[in-house]
Amino acid sequence: MMQTWWIIGAVLAMMLGNLIVRAGMVGVQLAHTNRLSTLQVLRYGLRRWQVWLGMLLLFVGIIAWISSVVWWRLELSYTLLGLSYVATIVFAWWFVGETLTLEKMFGAIIIVVGILLIIRGSGF
Predict the structure, then answer these.
(1) What is the DSSP string of 66-119?
(2) Tens-digit pLDDT profile for residues 57-116
(3) How many whole angstroms separate alpha carbon 56 and alpha carbon 20?
(4) pLDDT over 90 (residue 39)
(5) Do residues 66 and 50 touch, judged by C-beta distance below 8 A?
(6) Most distant CA atoms of the chain, gap in Å
């Protein structure tokens, strides 16, 4: 059971990390409407606490995922990590206000069906 928590923790940490980084970078986008170079965007972004918290969560997610590989086969661990993409799409729409298009919903469904097929074929 402990092995399952590593992958769940990885998915949640990576999803939250992506959302928090995005929320921090939206603040940079709103504060600076003129065209900025990539270096300027990074400089402004790294001044925001949300970006640092998001990067910390992404790091924790990577550590949790690496730990999950100890107990699970790579094919299952990596496949379940795909759930973070689906969760990020939904929660970005819900919390950050990004658009949820029919194409995104269809893509998320394809990811979930693919995950289920891989898990079923792996005897999980």
Answers:
(1) HHHHHHS-HHHHHHHHTHHHHHHHHHIIIII-----HHHHHHHHHHHHHHHHHH
(2) 999 999 988 888 887 778 778 888 888 889 889 888 888 888 999 999 999 999 999 988
(3) 10
(4) no
(5) no
(6) 53
- Alpha-carbon gap, residue 23 to 30, rounded angstroms: 11
SS3 124: coil
What's the one-letter identity of residue 94? W
Compute the C-alpha angle 39/44/48, nearest 5°: 140
Query: Which residue bears the tokens 């990074």?
Result: 42
Considering the chain, what is the average pLDDT of its residues? 85
Q: Which amino acid belongs to residue 84?
A: S
Structure confidence at residue 34 (pLDDT): 67
Token reading at 34:
């003129």
pTM: 0.77
| Residue that has been written with the tokens 């939250």 in this structure | 16
Q: Which one-letter amino acid corresponds to residue 72?
A: W
Half-sphere CA count of 102, side-chain side, radius 13 A: 0
